[in-house]
Design a protein that fits this description.
mainly beta, Porin, 18-stranded antiparallel barrel, 408 residues, single chain, 7 helices
Length: 408
């Protein structure tokens, strides 16, 4: 069912929960509310994937974060963003991904509004997060636009089904909010049940999820089942220690369900590509270890297998945000490594390397982080790519970036 009334009714549930809070709740919240946020500048330069033209972009973001207690068990959090992007590639196919990466395309509750989309200027406002939460010793329930991440992996995340983020993203800590009702039941120590319902304007594409968490020895164990926009997924994961090293892994098996799936896109080549993916079954798995070698040196290595990968030319892979969020990767076998070294108390050098085993392509991502003052960070880095046109990283062009982030 694709009905604006349905969207309005479900969206109104959040508003109603806020409106009918206990008497005086909002007054109490105003007194105890915490207001924070940040101002961020990101400068990047590279070449477009679609036509190999040089470009520069300059993103300015102002974020306000308001959190407060409504009662002893109820709380609320609202995060509001203003983004101003200045660039010189808005008329290329690459920029269509920027336009598509919004709540209108990817979320149920659309709070993303384009204020200006002119040549070289893209100005938007949105609610990054907006939710209410009930918390008691046996139950944690959250309703609204929230972050949902069931994965424990550092780079590629088979368990991150609701709002995955690419390991190539410069802003790895930024994820599209999921409009959902989540409940975490805590019947006993070291045991929990997580339930998720994420509505969609098309009721055939709603998402549901159930995860069981337990403990065996030194390991956290997870069992998961989900229906993600018509794709059924079953999974198993673990997270623990092997001597002095962390050891974790995730495995999922996906039952892709016809053309309702986000894995289907208009390739411009008839139905040849999409027909191959109809009702497909495949596995994904990731296993990794990490270790703090010294108080200043940390290392991590992970292997990712993607049975749902398809070797296609990168412009096709990047033609749809929905598609690449579902496909995860172009090739099946990827090794990811990271080495982070704290040079001084306020400076850090990070080195990340991603290697595509099948096509021998790679991405090397060094970056330098400087905590200039307690509330300001400067990050400077680059991404160096090498490989063929149907490899994981070969169609990208070298990218250089600088980010200044001021917290308040």
């Amino acid at each position: 069912m694709d009905d604006p009334v349905y969207r309005a009714l479900l969206s109104g549930v959040l508003c109603a929960s806020l409106s009918f809070s206990s008497p005086g709740a909002w007054a109490a919240a105003a007194e105890g509310a915490e207001l924070g946020g940040y101002y961020k500048d990101i400068f990047t330069t590279s070449r477009t994937v679609s036509n190999d033209k040089p470009y520069v972009s300059y993103l300015q973001r102002a974020r306000l974060d308001l959190a407060g207690k409504l009662s002893d068990t109820m709380s609320a959090n609202v995060i509001y963003d203003h983004d101003l992007l200045l660039d010189d590639y808005s008329r290329t196919a690459d920029f269509n991904l920027v336009r598509e990466n919004n709540q209108r395309s990817l979320a149920f509750w659309d709070t993303h509004h384009v204020l200006l989309d002119e040549r070289d200027i893209f100005w938007t406002q949105s609610l990054y997060r907006a939710y209410v939460r009930y918390e008691s010793p046996a139950l944690l329930c959250t309703m609204g636009k929230q972050d949902i991440d069931w994965s424990r992996m550092r780079f590629y995340h088979p368990f991150d089904l609701f709002n995955p983020v690419s390991p190539m993203s410069i802003e790895k800590d930024e994820t599209m909010g999921v409009d959902a009702v989540t409940a975490e039941l805590l019947p006993a120590d070291f045991m929990s049940y997580d339930l998720i319902y994420a509505p969609d304007i098309d009721t055939d594409r709603q998402s549901f999820g159930l995860r069981f968490s337990g403990k065996i020895g030194d390991y956290d164990i997870f069992l998961m089942g989900a229906d993600i926009r018509s794709d059924a997924v079953l999974g198993f994961a673990f997270d623990g220690y092997l001597k002095d090293s962390g050891l974790r892994g995730e495995y999922t098996y996906t039952f892709m369900n016809g053309r309702n799936s986000d894995a289907f896109i208009d390739t411009g080549q008839g139905d040849e590509f999409t027909d191959k993916r109809r009702d497909e079954r495949f596995s994904r798995a990731s296993i990794g270890m990490d270790r703090s070698f010294t108080p200043k040196l940390y290392g991590v290595a992970e292997y990712f297998y993607n049975g749902g990968a398809k070797k296609i030319h990168a412009p096709l892979f990047f033609s749809s945000v929905k598609f690449n969020r579902t496909a995860f990767s172009v090739t099946k076998h990827i090794i990811s490594t990271g080495l982070e070294y704290e040079c001084t108390g306020v400076t850090k050098l990070n080195n990340y390397l991603f290697y595509d085993i099948e096509e021998s392509s790679f991405c090397y991502n060094p970056e330098f982080v400087w905590n200039i003052v307690p509330n300001a960070d400067l990050t400077v880095g680059c991404q160096i790519f090498k490989g063929g046109s149907v490899s994981e990283y070969g169609s990208y062009h070298n990218l250089f970036y600088a980010e200044m982030k001021l917290f308040f």
